[in-house]
TrEMBL record:
Keywords: Membrane, Transmembrane, Transmembrane helix. GO terms for molecular function: DNA binding; DNA topoisomerase activity; restriction endodeoxyribonuclease activity. GO terms for biological process: DNA restriction-modification system; DNA topological change. GO terms for cellular component: chromosome. InterPro entries: Restrct_endonuc-II-like (IPR011335), Restrct_endonuc_IV_Mrr (IPR007560), Topo_IA_Znf (IPR013498), tRNA_endonuc-like_dom_sf (IPR011856), Type_IV_Methyl-Rstrct_Enzyme (IPR052906). This is Restriction endonuclease. The chain crosses the membrane at residues 16-38, 50-71. Residues 276-308 form the DNA topoisomerase type IA zn finger domain.
Length: 314
């Protein structure tokens, strides 16, 4: 199975072909071979009928499943995987360049929103900022931060493929910079917005697992917060590039003013601080419970997803 850009799973060619062949084989076995073997033997009529029914039913089910996998696999648009199993990057208007970034060598478990601790609520920004800053990067809601990271590579002219992970679990950006093999990923960027705690070793281990599975040598971890010392040590040991809000700001400031401005407009359009609901995609609003404020989905009660408030960074 191959994961597509929208997070769904798509069958590769051998999978549906094997299922199709298996369905045809089961049908032939039940409808023809078994009745032929039982022909002329007394008392085998019930077995013959049973074999034919089972062969027909199982064969139809397997063939239908194979056709369903084929339709889902070939009907997905945009980025994904081609017939050879290689990833298909998103096209970029600019020529491919080599990525460079300052190098800086956490569990993301939110606290219980029903606990007794006092939760500090970020002050809303009344107008769109005019320049980039660490405070702005940290103020971006999780989905807008993921958009910023993807747009950064687009402005750099690097072809990439964004694969969302589980709800609010971040995004993996696959980078394609091999001109000889344009559909072979040369790097992967694990993107995770800041949470109530710094990014820890769990995220670093997830990145290492993706690199090992996809056989990718270069790994980057981007967060709008900070990293724990343990995460930094593990990243340094495996020669990963850990990019926190401070390093990301330096990367953005290296771009020319026009590209910086385009990123700023894309990142701060509309409400860029209220988080998007990971469950339904709607905007979340501030809700108040018995133990303080938290983010609740605006579609409640149709959607009951809640998120803790992320404290201000000193």
């Amino acid at each position: 199975m191959v994961q597509t850009v929208d997070g769904t799973m798509q069958a590769s060619r051998p999978t549906w072909l094997v299922m199709l062949a298996l369905g045809a084989g089961v049908a032939v076995l039940g409808l023809y071979l078994v009745p032929l073997a039982l022909a002329g033997r007394p008392g085998t009529e019930p077995l013959t009928l049973l074999a034919r029914g089972a062969g027909l039913g199982a064969g139809v089910l397997l063939v239908a499943s194979a056709l369903g996998l084929l339709v889902r696999g070939t009907g997905s648009a945009g980025g994904g995987a081609d017939e050879g199993g290689e990833m298909r990057p998103m096209a970029s208007d600019a020529p491919a360049t080599i990525h460079s970034a300052p190098t800086q060598f956490e569990d993301d478990t939110p606290p219980d929103v029903h606990g007794d601790a006092t939760i500090q609520v970020d002050d809303p920004v009344t107008e769109a900022p005019r320049t980039w800053s660490i405070a702005l990067i940290q103020a971006l809601e999780w989905k807008r931060f993921e958009l910023l990271c993807a747009e950064y590579y687009r402005e750099k002219g690097i072809c990439h493929l964004a694969i969302p992970l589980a709800a609010n679990g971040g995004t993996d950006l696959y980078l394609f910079q091999d001109e000889a093999h344009p559909r072979r990923a040369t790097g992967v960027v694990h993107v995770k917005a800041r949470s109530v705690v710094p990014a820890g070793v769990q995220g670093v281990r997830e990145l290492l697992g993706v690199m090992a599975h996809e056989r990718i040598e270069r790994g980057f971890f981007m967060t709008s917060g900070t990293f724990t010392p343990e995460a930094k040590a593990l990243g340094h040991h495996h020669k990963l590039v850990l990019i926190d809000a401070r390093v990301l700001l330096a990367m953005i400031e290296r771009l020319d003013p026009d590209r910086q401005q385009r990123l700023l407009v894309a990142a701060t359009a509309g409400d860029y601080q209220s988080p998007s609901c990971p469950a339904c995609g709607g905007q979340m609003t501030v809700a108040t419970g018995t133990h303080g404020d938290y983010w609740g989905c605006s579609s409640y009660p149709a959607c009951s997803w809640i998120m803790p408030m992320v404290p201000k960074t000193p």
